[in-house]
Records
---
Amino acid sequence: MKKRKYSFNFILGTVLLALTLIPAIVGLFWTPYDPEAMDVSLKMAGISIKHIYGCDNFGRDIFSRVMSGSAITVVIAVGTVALGSIIGTILGAFTGYFGGIIDEALMRINDVALAFPSLLLALVMVSLLGSGKYQVMLALGIAFIPSYARIVRSEYIRIKNLDYVKSAKLAGASDLRIMFVHILPNAKTVLLSSVMIGFNNAILAEAGLSFLGIGVQPPDASLGRMLSEAQSHLFSHPSYALLTGCTIVAIILGFSLLSKEIK
Amino acid sequence: MKYVLKKILSCIITLFIVSLLVFVAFALIPGDPALSRLGTNATEATLAAMRHQMGLDRPLAVRYLSWLADALRGDFGTSYSYSMTVSSMILDKLPITLTLMLFSMILMVVIGVPLGVYASYKEGTVIDRIIQIINQINMAIPPFFSGILITLIFGVTLKMFTPGGFVSINRDPLGFFAYMFFPSLSVALPKCAMILNLLYSSLNGEKKKDYVRTAYSRGNTSNAVFFGHMLKNASIPTVTFLGMALADMIAGSIIVEQVFGIPGLGRILLTSIQNRDYPVVIAIIMLIAMIVIVTNLLVDVLYKVIDPRVGNQ
Amino acid sequence: MAEKLLHVEDLNIEFHDHLTPETVVFDFDLDMEEGEIVGLVGESGSGKSMSALAIAGLLSRHDMKKRGSIVFEGKEILNCPRNELRELQGDEICMVFQEPLTSLDPVKKIGWQVEESLKIHTQLTPEERKARALEALKEVELEDPQRVYDSYPHELSGGMRQRVMIAAAMVGNPKLLIADEPTTALDVTVQSQIVELLKKINREKKTAILFISHDLSLVRQLCQRVLVMKHGYVVEAGSSEQIFNNPKEEYTKKLIAAIPKCKETGDDIEVGEKLVDIKDVCVSFTKRKGRATEKVNVLKHITMHINSQEIVGLVGESGCGKSTLAKSIIGLIKTDQGSIINQESRTQMIFQDPYGSLNPSKTVQFIMEEPLKNLTKMTKEERAALSREMICKVGLSEEYLTRYPSELSGGQRQRVCIAASLMLKPKLIIADEPVSALDVTIQAEVLKLMNELHQELGLSFLFISHDLRVVHQMCDRILVMKNGEIVEEGDREQIYNNPQHEYTKELLKSAGLL
């Protein structure tokens, strides 16, 4: 009897993420060429062995730029999710567990925030905080808090009425202990899958902001910025846009395949 | 009826909260609007005069209330960058963005809903698998990239439209609507994937429910059970999604407008953010908030029509 | 061979969704005459529902294989095409399921659902259909059939919904009604009403009924013949009289023995001083109904006490306030007025659902040591030693300490709950329906364990249950509760032999004890 451990989705997801995230992580420390180095002679050079993705309108190596660009995109996404999920979890845990007037008021604001797409919230935040990679991280992180708070809150409301929480209360556990030792581990499946989805949304939102020119600012490259640069050369040089865009698609597809498996 | 009135009341309250939050947030940003309007060469005296003219020297609460009173009459002030009233700037561009959103909504429902129903109807077959695979990929394509791909395929290669060839509705109505088709498709495609997925999984979830077994035990055909019982039950979460999708489509439209060079609301919003033209930004945010909240109201009402359990408990 | 209504021979059902096929029903045989009531009895997982679904033609999943033969009125219906099966379903063979709320389509009106099988199988006009539906609703003794006809399922009570299910099944006058645990989700008094209703239908319409249940006393009240199933096999079949009075198989004997009986007298422990003293306690909740709030009185002037070394039974139907009373005794709920004096500050509670009362992300040991960590200064070794002692005391071995709740069966979980509640060595344990989620044989074992602990450790129990038999077996003194009030209180003998209050009599009657 042979047991199949990994599904097709899991394998494909892992492969896609390996293909995109490993260059991204390497890109934090090393790229084949300096992603900023311009070389007029290589302007719009096609795909070759030396430049496997070709070169852009300034003669910069696209592969190196994709590497460092995905690195920035991924770092921003990680920061965003970390900020949003940690604050969101704490907020959701307290409001869900204790309820009351503060809960009502916060959830009212939360509902309002949730009615807006996260990209729009981020737009508002960016217009408040300004552009640049740290601002984007902060803006997106704040924009993501409501959705995590809502998810965690509803998990806490569900779990706090279960009998084992009552047992824990009878066993003398303090409120904090019940919240974080007894309830949190049982909310982790839901939290984990929303972290995965959140990661995707963060990548999409960052790429969207940078595509619009109000996210990451030059000289930093991010996938969204590169795509908007590539768009102006769509007629002559479609491979630039395609390669950059496909990198975004591969990251998102990889994560959504993996998060499907976790569910 | 009482339910609807209650919802309307709650919407109005929500809108006030939004306006308060947005107004206060923008009032508290560091930076002096008077300074940015006059430039760094302005003298202290002219600055003070400008601040007074803009009403910035009054307390925050007074500023909010007077802004609110004006806003309720449809007056959102004057743009910092252009000497135009904000409302005329917005009203000019609103029809373009609304057309884009409406087209996208129609395309999303027309493409996504039948495919989702069909895939669930054929669950487990090859057709279902193919739809799922394409859908999974489609879901991972952000709207700006789908816009670029559509430009590349239908514009550059197939020459079905001229990229960047936007015409205004006044000059050429037919050309305007024809041009809006492909941008709408770019906005709609990622949402199609989501509605397909949602409908598919909620229909598959319904299949396991007890009432389906009851329906079979009465001698219904599989078709009668699927279309007569399950579809209505499965459409309940889908209706909720429509409200959320509309909000997302506004975001999608802003981006896709950039890809296709459409001078809509998105473009004013972006330039205003870059120029720190806050009256315009606030007005557009409030407008979007209103669209989102009103849609959610409609969804809630629709919800009640479909699901008798809502609002009775 | 005379024409039987239903003839099932050598029915085997296999699952194929795992790598090795799993057989859930083996060589199932059944004959039913017209107008007969047959009971199908067994514990969960015995294959009784599978067999019933197969007879109703509702097991059509492609990962399942069925072999053998099911002949209904001379026609082979096992593995026959669905189109032919449909002719019978809802017309000749109808089904009633366990959970009436989920078995009704939530977005369709009752009238529509009752008429559905008429729409499929007859050529009646809408007016005729409506008349038939209203008549069917009337026949199941629903008051105001017209109002029910225009209602949605969520607007009715559990008992009403099950009546609607029966009406929908009976509207086309079927020859065979299959009722799969139709009373399990209902309150005791409603249970006996449904059983009476089924009897009446059988008497008046000569409909044959296949009654599937885990509740032997209901089967005994209703059925003429009984089949006992275990692990997919029919272990014994015979007339009701023979099965209940003269069972042949070991398992049947065990099942019947597990029906809670009177407590043997003579082992009474001397009752001690008052442990819990409750005087004139009221509890109310404010229920929000939109903007308006409504005050619901859950407990009304409750006065009661629990002595040490005593098992007090608290009986009542769902929603009567018994769990609220329990929670107020341990201080989980605030009272509006009155006084509760509880001498035992370490009172522990055992809950009904063994799946919900153990934290799924923690090991048994963690769960058991939790009160010690919070409330005592014991060292790690002392805690571990005590958990080992207690887990053995509830009849499990030490290796269970490292397991997670998901690795335990329902009975084992309930034992762990009991063990955890013993860790602080309390004098009082409140058991809220501790065995109602368990199969009968396991129920008997857990009750036995609780009785032993009572004897050995001199524990007091407040034993909350809707099941009068269980209470009778366990308790010395019994309180009967209805709508937040204690309507009768007395010794076991007095309550069971000489009930005073109408409600107590009604409860006893529906449990078949009067």
Note: The first helix of chain A runs from residue 8 to 27.
---
Amino acid sequence: MRREVPKSFADYTPLLFPGLMLVVFFVVPFSTMIAVSFFKRNPAGFYTPDFVVDNYARFLTTFFAGVLGFSLMLAVLVAVCCVCIAFPFTYLLTKRSRRVQTLWLVGLLSVLSLSEVIIGFAWSTLFSQTAGITNLFVALGLMDKPVALLPTFGAVLAGMVYQALPYTILVLYPALVRLDPTLLEAARTLGASPVKAFFNVVTPALRNTIVATLIMVFVFALGSYLLPQILGRPRHWTLSVLITDQAIYQSNMPFGAAMAVFLVLISLALVGLMLLVGRKENAL
Amino acid sequence: MNRLIATPISRRGVLGAGLATAGVLAMPSILRAQDKSLKVGVYGGYFKKSFDEHVFPDFTKATGIAVESVAEPTGEAWLVQLEQAAKAGQAPADLSMMSQTSTLKGQSTELWTPLDTSRFKHYGDLLPRFINKYPDGRVAGIGAVAWWITLVSNTDVYKEAPTSWAAFWDKANEDKLGLLALASNSFLLEVTAKTFMGGTNALDTEEGLNKAFEKLAEVKPNVRLWYRDEAQFEQALKSGEIPMGQYYHDVTGLAIADGFHVRTTFPKEGGIQDSGNWVLSRASTKVDEAHVFIDYMSQPSMQGVMSRKVGTTPTLKKEVLDLTPAEFASVSSEIEPIIPRYDLYTSKADWINQKWTELIVG
């Protein structure tokens, strides 16, 4: 397909609506947030419009660096886990019959209807000592006595991967369905085993999709603030939890905004870095 | 005194009944009655449901003022919304239930219309701690509801009821506690001061606060859950998963009534008594209606209804109440309460918050 270069103003009109939405729902709120992050906080009340950098200064400590580092690490780990599970799964799914695929996709979509609260409480029950899965293991003779699997890092990770997995699959699915089957046939004809063909042909062919999916899940996981509270200990709380504390419980909007701006900038930088690395690899 | 209140109520009641039967002829009066209305913000969930059921209909019947109840979020989100709206001359609610710390914060921008206490017949019967004043003595808020945070435990796991907050520090309770996650809603600094430092006055100085933080750090290994949402802890307490902690006396009472194996104890150092005020937004034009409402809510009989139906603690002196000793005991205790140091959460808010966060997260 040949792409026509837009010539007149009219050719750009289809862009107006998305552009407007972007301004209304992203540029305006984000600018407000940046503005508020420089406002002056009054601990005995609210905040006054000003230009102070105190809010950023308070953030630049090893304590918050630690929390930020943990949040990024957790989001990366969730993204990697999700893609590692979802990619082979989706690939195998596309090999099934239409009917089976539809059933699976409907099932996955129904998981999306669960709120973070329900997912959190369901997993906290599953991981509990009194009613959790370890009771099942005891009944099967695999364990001596039931134990609590939360609050632990593993519980937080499991909950977040569970929450993000349907999105991951839904993003990967269209690309995998459209993958040219002749690529695989060629690989098989040339003597590659199905596993080898998957890793040496399918995976590299969809590298860009995988990178895009990783970024999407990473950004999605970065905003999680309920699951770390329900399934983890305070040291597993993400920066989002602390932002909520400031905004909702301390009415310290300027500091909350400064933390949020920082989080957005760091994640944009990481995403940019990833795209840059991806482009270089493609150029080679 | 009681007669004075009773008269207008019954007269209104008779009038109302008469109007209903008079039908068409009474239309103008009904319209007048509906003209008077009041938007009242109450904490969403249990409180709003109870107020809608047990309080507002009777108030409208007694005074002819229609009430529109608004669910407010907990925390300080509602304070921020009221403040932003007042700047624009709007009042999302005329009267709101407001936590003590939020009431103090609202004072800083004169968010609350000062109340005329001569219009409250039972003003003199209010316990002093339920009157929130501006520094110059004007009244910013009147106690709306009070509740207790007590020492709760699961009766299957703890056969004997704990008697002191010191149980939180007991090494035997490792990884067994559920505590509230913020300094300003758990009031654990006050508990520490009352239990180990002779009283909450020990928190007057930064040195005293540091000592309390140090002592509180010893609790950390015993805490399994630092919760922000009640439901998070309640479920775990009922099942025995997290068998001890701090929780709301009223809600624990409901759980006991439902047959769950839990108990609530007023420790010998006292339960924590927290409360909310009625405050009137400066953007509200319903000053008269608001005074009528606060006056109505501050009657001994209404305080009794609230204790019996909603489970809140009366804001009036015990002597004027119509509660039986058993009813009083179910919503309060003779032990001197721990009153939170609300002033600290405005004067040293960020310092305490930072130290607290580092204490539990670090």
Note: The first strand of chain A starts at residue 40 and ends at 41.
